[in-house]
Amino acid sequence: MKSAAIPVFRGRRVLLLHKNDRDRQTLESQLNRLGMLVESRDTAQRHDWDLIDVCFFDADSEKRFTFPWACNEPKIPLIAMMGSETPERIKWCLANGVSSFLVKPVRSSGTYLALMQVEHRFAELKRINTQINELLERVKSRRIVFKALLQIMHAFKLNEDQAFEKLRSVSMHQQVSIEALAVSIVCGEPVESYKDADAAKNKSPNKLDDH
Description:
Layout: E1 13-17, H1 22-33, E2 37-41, E3 54-58, E4 78-82, H2 87-95, E5 100-103, H3 111-156, H4 160-174, H5 178-186, H6 197-202
Parallel strand pairs: 1-2, 1-3, 3-4, 4-5
Helix pairs in contact: 3-4, 3-5, 4-5
């Protein structure tokens, strides 16, 4: 089995959301030693996120940060800096897609570990979210196909198996996917035009008589 490549952090852009104190200064120093480009702020502007590769933020802040994406669907890796390990704070961080934690006070060790963790877990989170979205699309497609089948069943007085066979036959005749054809039907394409599709598909040239 091929081992995963060790990530290179040099040149990556970091947004550090934390008040200017010893923790921030220590982390800045460590990130700079790794060759990372650090932008430190008390708060983030909306346009900042498009330019960032990874974000460290203060999870102990009285005013919780808001991120410009849906919960648990972060666009960039998030590392929460936390000194007070309360269940509520941890739950909030996990719900917002945090992939790693850095314990405060920040020390000379732990930063590289947090970066390695976030690299792996963020990639895994993206993979899982992609799979979930694909499954949701499949479910949506199946619902649309079922609606199209109901229309065909009603129009031609067919049972479900017969309706699906007609849908499949028409899709092959039109050289489109079943899902795409179902969308057309649900969007208003009259199914009555499919009446002779099977005949057109199965029609073969007349055989020559033997002499």
